[in-house]
Structure formats: C-alpha cells, structure tokens
Task: inverse folding
C-alpha cells in the first residue's frame, strides 16, 4: 500500500496549484490517498487568498481519495504540521509530507514509497528527504545517509515519529556543548540558533525539534544526491522564506534509486561537501538558514 500524502496549505493559490499539478503528475498519484490541511486566515488580508486556495483544492482529482481538513481558526504552520502528521501517521503507520510551496519530480512518490518500504525495519533510518543541496556529488552515489533532517518533501514512520517532542526547555537541558557542535554540523552552520529562537518566542517552528529528536536518538536521514524537490517559496511569499537561489535545484527525473549496497552509516564524503557548501555561502549571506526558517512572532 502506498503511503498517504499529507499536504499543508494556507494562502498562496498560485503556489498550491503548481504543487498539486506536480504531485498529480507523479506515477503512483492515482494509488495514493491525499489529505490536505487548510489553515484558517490569520487576519483580514489573508481571507480572500485562503478562500481561493480552499476553492481550488475542492476541485482536485487524480488521487485514490482526497480528504480536506479546514481549520476553523489559524493554527500556524508548526502546530498544524505536528497535529496533522501525528494524526495521519497514527492511522496509517507512515506518511509523506509536503507543504504548499514544494514542486516535485514525477518520480518523487516512487522514491519515497520505495525508501519507506526498503528501510521500514532499519531502525537506524528515521527520515527520508526528497531534497538535497547543490554540490558535486561525484564519488557519493545516488543517495547517502547523514545526521541532518531536511523538510522540503519528506517521509517517516510511526515508530520513529512517536518520539517527536517539542519541549524546548528539555531539549536545551539535554544537549551538551559537544552535542551542539555536532548538531551544528561541526560548526559549519548554526542550527542551534533555531532552538534558542523558539525558546525566546522569536520564532515558532517544528522542524528543528524533529531534527533534534533524530539527532539524540542517533538516527540517520536518507538523502538523494540529486533533488526530487524544488522549493518555489524562495520568492519571498512564504512566512519563512526569502529569495535565496542557492537552495533551488533542478529536479531529478529518474524512475528509481537502487538502495542495495548503500551502507547505513553517515557518509563522511557527503558531510564534508555539505560543510564546504555552508562554509562557502554561510559567510556571504550571513546565515541563510536563519532567514529561510524565520517565522512571524506568535
């Protein structure tokens, strides 16, 4: 059985349309159930675009079934994703997650379902990402494992997600200086900034806590070397996105990735190349990921 797809939408009808068109063109779309969470407008300005999104998603076809959950009040992205993923994964045991600014390759669902099936009993594997950084992947292969979680098109299983916890005080108390160094990709990035920003209520995010959960459990995340995903929200329209073209990739249009022979341990070559990527662009852009994940205040 194909994994359910859960999609989170808000107030960007043009982006949602592109996301749905790409998703519907995937092989296995007609075999997949689609569950859409539509957040309510936060203010008067958002009412009209939210209604446009809701009108559009009611006309979607091409999936095994479609369920739409319209929030009566504005939940915000973090709360909505945590609740939606938990509800869907508790019912189905696995889930593929998309947001309303993610455009995918026609073979995204193939990759996700193949990986979910292949690694279902490999308890070291916690997370499957459809996106990867733009760097020279020579010598790595088609995919690799590493410690960091990417959330632009991803999947996981119930027995891993059950450990997810958004408790910032507990998280800070349980991380040593060495943990923080490794969490920050050996100092190449400052992911820990997001934890502290959640603590101060400067931002309200979910993904950093999922990464922290995986990290503390010594879990691994599977990445394709070439992306099945591009983020069209890097046009400044998203509540946590800015115009950063270095994270925009060409989509991978290959049918399958062979997981046989892929060693389930962190790929040091890939990690070194990603660290070089950060060291090159991080200093120029003054912490791009801080801007990418910036959220409006509560």
Result:
């Amino acid at each position: 059985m194909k994994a359910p797809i859960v999609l989170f939408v808000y107030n960007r009808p043009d982006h949602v349309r592109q996301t749905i068109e790409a998703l519907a063109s995937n092989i296995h779309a007609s075999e997949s159930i689609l569950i859409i969470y539509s957040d309510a407008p936060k203010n008067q300005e958002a009412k009209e675009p939210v209604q446009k999104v809701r009108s559009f998603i009611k006309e979607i076809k091409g999936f095994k079934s479609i369920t739409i959950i319209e929030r009566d009040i504005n939940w915000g992205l973090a709360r909505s994703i945590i609740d939606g993923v938990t509800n869907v994964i508790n019912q189905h045991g696995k889930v593929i997650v998309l947001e309303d600014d993610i455009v995918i390759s026609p073979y995204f669902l193939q990759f996700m379902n193949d990986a979910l099936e292949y690694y279902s009993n490999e308890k070291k594997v916690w997370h499957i990402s459809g996106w990867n950084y733009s760097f020279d992947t020579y010598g790595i292969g088609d995919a690799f494992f590493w410690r960091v979680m990417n959330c632009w098109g991803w999947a996981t299983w119930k027995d891993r997600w059950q450990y997810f916890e958004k408790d910032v005080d507990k998280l800070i108390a349980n991380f040593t200086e060495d943990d923080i160094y490794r969490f920050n990709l050996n100092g190449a990035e400052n992911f820990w900034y997001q934890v502290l920003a959640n603590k101060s209520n400067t931002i309200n995010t979910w993904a950093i806590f999922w990464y922290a959960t995986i990290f503390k459990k010594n879990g691994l995340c599977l990445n394709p070397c070439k992306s099945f995903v591009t983020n069209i929200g890097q046009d400044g329209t998203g509540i946590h996105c800015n115009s950063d073209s270095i994270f925009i990739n060409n989509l991978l249009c290959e049918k399958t990735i062979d997981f046989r022979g892929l060693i389930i341990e962190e790929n040091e070559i890939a990690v070194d190349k990603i660290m070089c990527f950060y060291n090159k662009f991080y200093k120029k852009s003054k912490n791009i990921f801080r801007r990418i994940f910036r959220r409006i205040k509560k």
In short: The chain is about 40% helix and 15% strand. Residues 235-249, 285-298 have pLDDT under 50 and may be disordered.
